[in-house]
Amino acid sequence: MRIPEIASKAIATFFGVGYLPKVPGTFGTLAAIPLYLVLRRLPIFLYILILGKLIAVGIITSDIQEKQWGRDPSRVVIDEVCGLLVTLIARPIGFKEIALGTALFRLFDIIKPPPVGIIDRRIKGGIGIMADDLAAGAMSALILHVIRRRGWLS
Asked: What does pTM read for this prediction?
């Protein structure tokens, strides 16, 4: 798939959010919440289909921008967007659940516990940029699921 340079930058930075000077990953995560609020209304198969396409495009654009900006550039935040969408794949509707999922995702993305840190160190390119955030999202989704099932947010 060939993506024009301007589109690649727009997608990789999630329409410029990645250019914010402080904590662009956190802002990328927060910027994904409105997208999530739209996607959660879709049937689950469409949510997963769109997420899969976004991940594929994220891998391509992250790879392009890494070649231009250097290894795992902080301006690339499409990985945070996809990671949060993975975290919220069960499509919670309550503010507490969305906020907790967002906080869990940011925690795992920042501290990089295994396997997140291992993926971050060992996999290069666009796949590497995306994969550690997808792993952090999967870990967050699992913990959020357990918390929801136990009723600990009630």
From this structure: 0.95
